[in-house]
């Protein structure tokens, strides 16, 4: 799919999903009160002509709050589900849904940061989220989709190929692997129909793009294996190699490899999350 307008609509959907899954802000309030959020959502999925995606987006639009009281409740609902201030237990970080711990997944975090760096992107100054936060990853794909539209419009076929491959790799290696597990957690732990519908939407969006780009993400298992599983499932001497015993062993290295820079791109910006002021 190389039509620039299709990529613009893809970019908008990822952006709206990032905005809605971030901590609610005045921008989201205004978009919901004016029905702009719902209208843009439905307009973009209609342009992509995907029945599953259209159904998911229409459900989000039907469940999204649009009166001041309901929108105000969205603030407390978000905090209860995802916010640290009220002990929200639904994690919005990729590492939380895969095997291992934050300490053992530094390679995965480095791989994600490598994707951003390849396009000269970074988190905004003052943004204290990790690179594997849901909204940051959605924002990144939105940026690449918009960049694809620009390159297609200007006839840069090589540029389109580079950015398309980056999107395919990122969906296959990251978003596509953990979002199904995230959706299951939302459905299990959240009673709010809006966030449930929103989780269905992002999974449908990523699945549609994975199919479009010809990739099949290996979804994380429902119950991640223990970080020590590689040690306990094999025979051998696991004593420290510096203690005078046999050779020490360590788990195999992770899959995260730094991507080489894809070359010049149409812009060099800092990457905001959904509720930030935008690229600068």
From TrEMBL:
PANTHER family found in the cross-reference section: CHAPERONE PROTEIN YCDY, DIMETHYL SULFOXIDE REDUCTASE CHAPERONE-RELATED
Region of interest: Disordered: 215-280
Organism, as annotated: Halopiger xanaduensis (strain DSM 18323 / JCM 14033 / SH-6)
Keyword annotations from UniProtKB, A to Z: Chaperone
A Pfam entry, by short name: Nitrate_red_del
Entry protein name: Anaerobic dehydrogenase-like protein
Low complexity composition-biased segments: 248-260
InterPro entries assigned to the protein according to its UniProt record, in alphabetical order: DMSO/NO3_reduct_chaperone, TorD-like_sf, TorD/DmsD_chaperones
Origin: domain of life: Archaea
Upper lineage: Archaea, Methanobacteriati, Methanobacteriota, Stenosarchaea group, Halobacteria
């Amino acid at each position: 799919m190389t039509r620039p307008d299709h990529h613009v609509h893809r970019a908008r959907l990822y952006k709206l999903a990032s905005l809605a899954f971030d901590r609610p802000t005045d921008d989201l309030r205004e978009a919901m009160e004016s029905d702009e959020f719902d209208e843009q959502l439905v307009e973009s999925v209609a342009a992509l002509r995907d029945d599953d995606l259209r159904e998911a987006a229409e459900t989000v639009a039907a469940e999204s709050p649009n009166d001041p009281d309901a929108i105000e409740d969205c603030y407390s609902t978000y905090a209860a589900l995802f916010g640290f201030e009220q002990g929200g237990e639904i994690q919005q970080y990729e590492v939380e849904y895969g095997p291992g711990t934050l300490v053992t997944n530094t390679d995965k975090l480095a791989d994600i940061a490598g994707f951003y760096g390849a396009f000269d992107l970074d988190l905004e100054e003052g943004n204290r989220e990790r690179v594997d936060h849901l909204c940051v990853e959605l924002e990144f794909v939105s940026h690449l989709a918009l960049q694809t539209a620009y390159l297609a419009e200007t006839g840069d076929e090589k540029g389109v190929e580079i950015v398309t491959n980056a999107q395919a790799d990122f969906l296959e290696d990251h978003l596509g692997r953990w979002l199904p597990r995230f959706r299951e957690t939302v459905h299990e732990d959240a009673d709010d129909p809006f966030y449930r519908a929103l989780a269905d939407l992002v999974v449908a969006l990523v699945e549609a793009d994975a199919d479009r780009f010809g990739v099949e993400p290996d979804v994380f298992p429902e119950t991640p294996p223990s970080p020590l599983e590689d040690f306990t499932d094999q025979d051998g001497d696991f004593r420290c190699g510096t203690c005078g015993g046999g050779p020490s062993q360590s788990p195999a290295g992770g899959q995260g490899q730094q991507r080489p820079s894809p070359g010049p791109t149409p812009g060099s910006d800092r990457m905001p999350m959904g509720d930030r002021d935008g690229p600068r």
